[in-house]
Specification:
Layout (H helix, E strand, L loop, with lengths): L6 E3 L5 H11 L3 E9 L2 E7 L6 E6 L12 E5 L2 H10 L8 E4 L2 E4 L10 E6 L5 E6 L11
Parallel strand pairs: 1-4, 5-9
Antiparallel strand pairs: 2-3, 3-4, 6-7, 6-8, 8-9
Amino acid sequence: MHAKIENIILGVTDVDRAKEFYADRLGFHLDVDHQPNDQFRVVQLTPVGSACSITFGIGLVGTEPGATTGVYLVVDDIEVAHADLEANGVTNTGIQHFAEGGLVPGVDPERRDFMSYVYFDDPDGNSWVVQEAHHRPSTAPDA
């Protein structure tokens, strides 16, 4: 079987607050905001560069607020991603990496793939993990 994950349903208590968080604070692209009546609304957003979207709204099945955990956003520079979260007021754990005994503060010293993380929650408690992979050092000349 050849398959792709293209959409994850999130439960939220306030659709407009969630839309603001994901679009304005995380920079996700707003794909759809459709409300044909008061009993149904669907909002779909996609992280820039991703083939997988998130959806939330009113009248969607199986969407307990805060029940979605451990969704990964994979980035090529964890420091840039962390700075973006901080600049947009997203409360997070700071950058962490695995060492003997568990997670410790800071970027993985060897910048190994899948070893540096930042954790955060949306306003409803749905949890996210930012993970670094395929890091390439800056090629910009020294100033």
